[in-house]
Specification:
Elements: E1 10-14, H1 19-30, E2 35-40, H2 43-54, E3 59-64, H3 72-84, E4 90-93, H4 108-132, E5 157-162, H5 175-194, E6 200-205, H6 213-218, H7 232-244, H8 254-265, H9 268-279
Parallel strand pairs: 1-2, 1-4, 2-3, 4-5, 5-6
Helix pairs in contact: 1-7, 3-4, 4-5
Amino acid sequence: MRRFSLQGRWVIVTGASSGLGRAISLRLANKEKARVIAVARRKDRLTALVDEAAGTGGVILPLPADITKPGAPAQIVSEAHRLAGEIPFGLLNNAGITWYGRFTEMPVQEIGRIIDLNVRATMELTHAFLLLHGQAARPDENPVESGAPPCSRETKAAMLTVTSLGAHVPVPYQSVYAASKHALQAFVESLAAEVSGRGILVATVEPGGIRTEMIEQAGLEKKFSPRTLMSADVIAAWAIQSWKRGRLHAVPGLTNRLVAAFGRFLPRRFVARASERLFRP
């Protein structure tokens, strides 16, 4: 594992106006002493976030934007570069949404909305960030054959993508969300192998249920007691520490880690049935 420090470094955080993104932004600014570029649609929420961080000496710059708009990911990375005055060191892909209920009752536009934000926009942001760091895809380039060391000790840039425990197990009644997180997990793991040895650290954090606005908007608070959900602050601390330690995978919480293990080793049909009973409306 390759460790790095975030102190004094610029980090782009998406979905920063509420929930886990807000908790991560504040922890980065106040505890890690990183400098944060907070991306979200709601300008008023970003203003409040900036003020809260400033009250304890943290540095957060607001970047109001909808990352799902055509061309927005590349524009966001470019604007973050301009605001920072240098190439940002980190990208933290946190923005995401879900929809809870039977698939046949799901408005068809919600399918596109979830895939657009959770998958496409996240991939495009990652693409733009890598290009900014000069990591254009070169199929004919082999770091070993070109004389570069097979594993760089210096971390030149670091990316953390929030996927989900739902990236490891079926999640009935959130089937499109689960599909998006499975796709995102596969994408990040594949990308990590591609950029290995180039000084780019790629990692994921895969939380279970979190007490956030997303849970309330989806109606999932009716299914789960707040006591069974982890707090955004706890997940934020876990995510940042595992990221700094260079861990590709991080599933916070013992119960969640057991669920992820069951998803790998137990028959998929059994896991799906158990999950269906848990999430049944």
